[in-house]
Amino acid sequence: MASKKSSTRTSPMAAGASLLLFLLPLAISAASPSSDAEVISRFQEYLRIDTAQPAPDYAAAVAFLRGQADAAGLEASTLELVAGKPLLLLRWPGRRPSLPSVLLNSHTDVVPSEPHKWEHPPFSAALDEASGRIYARGSQDMKCVGMQYLEAIRRLRSAGFIPDRDIYLTFVPDEEIGGHDGVEAFVKSTEFKEMNVGLVLDEGLPSLGEEYRVFYGERSPWWLTIKAKGAPGHGAKLYDGSAMENLMKSVEAIRKFRTSQFDLVKSGAKAEGDVVSVNFAYLKAGTPTPTGFVMNLQPSEAEIGLDIRLPPGVHIEAMERRLAEEWAPSSRNLTFEFKQKASVLDKFGKPAVTPADSSNSWWPLLEEAVKRAGGKLGKPEIFPASTDARYFREIGLPAFGFSPMANTPILLHDHNEFLSKDEYLKGIGIYESIIRTLATLKDSNVDEESRAEL
Ligand SMILES: *[C@@H]1O[C@H](CO)[C@@H](O)[C@H](O)[C@H]1NC(C)=O
Ligand SMILES: [Zn+2]
Fold first, then answer.
1. In the record, which residues are listed under signal peptide (predicted)?
2. Sign of the torsion angle spanned by Cα atoms 64, 174, 191, 453
């Protein structure tokens, strides 16, 4: 790989060379386009690095990506905001570095897997020749996107393109465990402030159809425990006020609410990201014995854990009232505690969403860029779970979640995660168009507005 790379890098640019004479220093460093086989093999190489939580090999990932950055002619620096958790920052300088920059973000870590339940080992990046599928943990979430950014930049450079504004790429650690030592720390750093970011692109989800999904906000997690206390008693006795009875009344109310929300999704009235989801994370009760539980005793304590996700437009006070009055009323000897309670608002007190309409000058550019590359964006959605994009939106920056994977089942965090070779290659063309469009100064409004937001 390495020797091949250096030989293609020095090959002369035949076509258009005279036109590019005035850009000589940059034209010389531009590489000729890689073959699809080379592009796929670079993707596989990244996928083969085991960056699974809880012990991701960040050093190997960053070493590999630095090599890719060199090949793409990007400036690279590694920030270690937290020891052992490197964040790779790449920069493609624009002609006018004072303009707000565009940040292309991706995370390097992946979730764990159960290898014995996979058809191909999760870090083999096996390419099934018949179907064209590349199987690997991270093939959808989100090593695909990180490599597509780099491949798109290589192509743009070899075509002689020079951005007006700075383009930054970040390869960040720890997204899969909450991003606290990754993007959350990064947005507070002086390095980040100096980047003068105007727009962020981050991860999205695949779609089964032809349209690409795009996300303009996400639901906020509330992780909640509810504890019940009650009079203990004989398992044969019917009486009121046991911990289990007190808690089961809550379980019934919670399930009723869950059904009402889920029905809205099932009927098509609302999208997944637009309802409040609530799921039981654990149930904990009983009096244990060495082999099981005491069967003729009603315990004096019982507990449940809930994972609740709230869309940005939710009525917070109503939700808090529901909790205090229906799900965990003290009158029923219940108490509740938040393990996590993320705000649905940004630091200015506004819903943490990025306008996906003409009020945001970046939006038509993104739409147009995808269209120009032969793709189509679906209706903008609220991301049902959490991504690092929330940290950017929280500080008032526009951020879109977008992973160009059409005709693809959602296999993030699932067994046999795969991405087809053709979708991957198509996605590079999409990013080529996106980067070209966003990097080119056309509409000065974009820059005035972005600056006003900062
Ligand atoms: C709550 O606990 C108190 C004190 O143990 C008890 O008197 C009361 O009956 C309990 N209420 C319920 C609804 O369980
Ligand atoms: Zn992800």
1. 1-30
2. positive
